[in-house]
From TrEMBL:
InterPro entries: Lipid-A_deacylase-rel. It comes from the Bacteria. Pfam families: PagL. The keyword Signal applies. Keywords: Signal. It comes from Phaeobacter gallaeciensis. This is Lipid A 3-O-deacylase. The lineage of its organism: Bacteria, Pseudomonadati, Pseudomonadota, Alphaproteobacteria, Rhodobacterales. Residues 1-23 form the signal peptide.
Length: 168
């Protein structure tokens, strides 16, 4: 399973790094580490690594910008989520920001009790961060994966991420 996971990570990284030929100022890649707690009794909570891509903003007004994004989350247990959707960012001034995203996608569990009810899952995330003069940023965020009650069971999983953002 680990080699398959690494293939997914390599493929997504290649796609994300080659996405869009436009100027790279708004695009960013973030790498995160964190910990996930599954709601289902008997499931295996574990550490997680995340890779997120944000494309150039398609809407901007005042302190808010909206953009398309994609994400890959890999649990220490081998569980995997890949999704794409919409992300928002509010620039609060003095280098602080709030970020949020909703990314529908596919979830593949490697531990039976980490089953979230279906392959279709939605990752919602909210966080707060600080940008640095060199263009990088650091954020702390909470995410939740759920099938939005589209399946017979919907236990969900919550994660805390520490993410390092890099401009592309």
């Amino acid at each position: 399973m680990l080699s398959e996971t690494m293939k997914y990570i390599a493929a997504l990284t290649a796609v994300l790094l080659s996405a869009g030929a436009a100027a790279a100022q708004d695009r960013e890649l973030s790498v995160g580490i964190g910990y996930s707690e599954f709601s289902r009794p008997g499931s295996e909570n574990s550490a997680l690594v995340s890779l997120d891509y944000r494309h150039n903003a398609f809407y901007e007004k005042g302190i808010f910008s909206a953009r398309f994004g994609a994400a890959l989350d890999v649990q220490e247990t081998g569980d995997l989520f890949i999704g794409a959707g919409v992300a928002g960012k509010w620039d609060l001034g003095q280098s602080w920001f709030i970020e949020a995203s909703v990314l529908p996608g596919a979830y593949f569990e490697s531990v039976a009790l980490n089953d979230l009810g279906s392959t279709f899952e939605i990752r919602s995330m909210a966080g707060v961060g600080r940008s640095f003069a060199n263009g990088t940023a650091l954020s702390l965020s909470l995410s939740h994966k759920s099938n939005a009650s589209t399946a017979d069971i919907n236990p969900g999983v919550n994660s805390l991420h520490l993410r390092w953002h890099f401009p592309l």
